[in-house]
Design brief:
With 143 residues, the protein is an alpha+beta fold. It has one domain: Alpha-Beta Plaits (2-Layer Sandwich), CATH 3.30.70. 39% of the residues lie in helices and 20% in strands. The chain has a four-stranded antiparallel sheet. Bound molecules: 2'-deoxyadenosine-5'-diphosphate and magnesium ion. 2'-deoxyadenosine-5'-diphosphate binds next to loops. One of its GO terms (molecular function) is metal ion binding. Homotetramer. Its cofactor is Mg(2+). Belongs to the NDK family.
Length: 143
């Protein structure tokens, strides 16, 4: 037996702009996970500084923050047994060029030759990250 988990998923500005929010939610629901919260939001520099704190100082950090501010994101809380690992598997590898076909990034993403990969989705990478990230995006939910 495993505990029910929650994961913080973001459809990034490229996904919203390209009209792929519904397709991405469809894949999450088709997998069997539950949508606990879904909200179209404008990120802020403060939210992103907290959300991406682990990447501060990396060469792609400033382009990443700029990209995440380039349009609305769809912030989603997903629930289900092992959904943190499960959504990472649905999302595929960070680099969309090598992400496996069948995954969100592999099927719907590509390299655009930019300083930061625009790879459609974010998903929490551990229970600790999920709790922290849900607290950042949905303070009223707790984690
Ligand atoms: P992930 O989103 O798969 O958890 P991450 O947390 O390592 O990946 O990085 C956050 C985002 O930053 C990632 O989705 C895309 C971008 N990124 C990561 N590594 C990169 C790199 N080497 N070059 C360009 N963009 C990168
Ligand atoms: Mg990450």
């Amino acid at each position: 037996m495993t505990d029910v988990q929650r994961s913080l998923v973001l459809v990034k500005p490229d996904g919203v702009r390209r009209g792929l929010s519904g397709e991405i939610l469809r894949r999450i629901e088709a997998k069997g996970y539950t949508l606990v919260a879904v909200e179209l939001r404008d990120a802020t520099p403060e939210i992103l500084a907290a959300h991406y704190a682990e990447h501060e100082g990396k060469p792609f950090y400033a382009p990443l923050v700029e990209f995440m501010l380039s349009g609305p994101v769809l912030a989603v809380v997903v629930e289900g047994h092992r959904c943190i690992e499960g959504f990472r598997s649905l999302a595929g590898a960070t680099d969309p060029t090598v992400a496996a076909p069948g995954t969100i990034r592999g099927d719907l993403g590509r390299d655009w030759g930019l300083a930061v990969q625009q790879n459609l989705v974010h998903g929490s990478d551990s229970p600790e990250s999920a709790e922290r990230e849900i607290g950042i995006w949905f303070a009223d939910l707790g984690a």
